[in-house]
Amino acid sequence: MELERTFDQWQERLADLGFASVQAWKAQHPGARVIGYFPVYAPAEIIHAAGMLPVGLSGGGDRLDIQHADARFGSFICSIIKTTLEMGLRDHLKVFDGILFSSICDSARNLCFVMKRNFPDLYTDFLHLPHNPSSTASVDFLASEYRRLIQELERIGGRAVTETSLQNAIALYNHNRQLIRSLYALRAQKPHVLRAWESYVLVRAGNLMPVEEHNALLEESLEQLAQRPGKPRDSIRVVVEGAFCEQPPLDLIKLVEDAGCYLVDDDFVIGRSWFTDDVPVDADPVHALAESYVNRAVYSSVRHDFRAPRWEGLAEKVKQSRADAVLFLIAKFCEPAYFDYVLFKKKLEEIGVPHLLLEFEEKQFTFDRVRTEVETFVESLVFD
C-alpha cells in the first residue's frame, strides 16, 4: 500500500507546474541556486557539485494552454518547445536561477536563444556537445566546454567547484544510474510486478529532487517491489522507442499497457540513465565526464556515433529484453525521431521484428484512435 501511495504522490508532483517541491528545497537552502535543464542530457554532476539543484524540464504537458508561445514559434514545432516557453512567459519558471540547453535539435537550439532574449535576467546557456565522437579532439573539446560551464556556475553561485565535490557528485549519480538499471532489469524480468508507468514515475521523480533523496526513494522502492505480488497477464513484450525528449502523457503509457503490452524497455527520461557504465571517479572528474559522454553514452537519436550505430543499439535492446515487437512513440514534429525511424524500420525488418508507429503530443488527452491501433497490433501478433 505504501508503494501505491508513492506512485500517487509523484504523479501529483510531476503534474505540478509550480514546482512546489523545488521551491521547498530552495526555501530550505537560503542562497542556493536552482538550474533547470532541457532534455535530453545535461551534466547534472557539475550542477550538483556547484551546490545547486539540477531540475529536469519536461514541458507543460496537458496542463497548460498556450496563449503566448505561438507568437514566438512557427506552427510545425513540437509541443515541448512551446509549453516550456509558455511556462516562462507565465511565470512558472520563476524558481529557476538558470536554464541549460544542449544539442538536441534546431528547435531546442532556437528555444535557448528565444529564452535568452525574453528573459535577459535569467542565466541561459547552451552547452555544445560534440557531434563526432570518432574525432580524437572530442573529449578535450567537451572537457573545455564543461570547464566553461563550471566557471559560469561558480560566477552565479559564488561557490567553487572542487575536484572532490565533483568526484562525490559523480559517485552519487553513478549509484543513481545503478539503481535505475536495477529497476529496469526488474521490469524486464517481471513486468507483471512493476508496470512501465510506475517505473516511469519513479525515475522521472529524480528530475525534481536532490540525487541523494532520489537514491533513497529508489532503494526503498526496490526493496518493496522485491516483496510485491503480481499476477502475470496475457501480454506481448514490447520495447518503446522515440520518446527520448518530449514525454508521452502518462495516460498514454497506461493505455498501451492496458491494451495488452508489457513495456519491457524504453527511452523515457533517457538522461537519467545516460551512461552505459559508471563514470570513473579516480581520475580528473571533468575529463572523466567528457570521456564517458563520448565513449560510454547510450544510443540516442540526438547523439551520432557511427562506431556504434543507433539501429544496432535498438536491435540489441530488443534482444536483451526478449521483446516481441517495437512500439515507436514519436512526438509530433520531432525531426530527429522521424529521421531515425527509417533506419530503425530497416533494421527491424532485417531481423524480423514487427513494429507499430504512433504519434503523440504532450497535450494529448483523447486516445481512442491509439487504443484501437494498439489493440489491433497486439491481436495481429497474438493470433498470427
Number of separate helices: 14
Q: Main beta sheet, described?
A: 4 strands, parallel
Could you give the order of the helices and strands? HHEHEHEHEHHHHEHEHHEHEH
Main structural class: alpha/beta
Order of strands, main sheet, comes to: 2-1-3-4
Global mean pLDDT = 95
Distance between the termini: 39 Å
Strand element count: 8
Fraction of residues in helix:
40-55%
Question: What is the CA-based Rg, rounded?
Answer: 20 Å
How much of the residues is beta strand, in percent? 5-15%
Uncertain regions spanning at least 5 consecutive residues: none
Shape from CA axes? globular
Description:
With 384 residues, this protein is an alpha/beta fold. Helices cover 49% and strands 11% of the residues. The chain contains 14 helices and 8 strands. The radius of gyration is 20 Å and the shape is globular. The two termini are 39 Å apart.
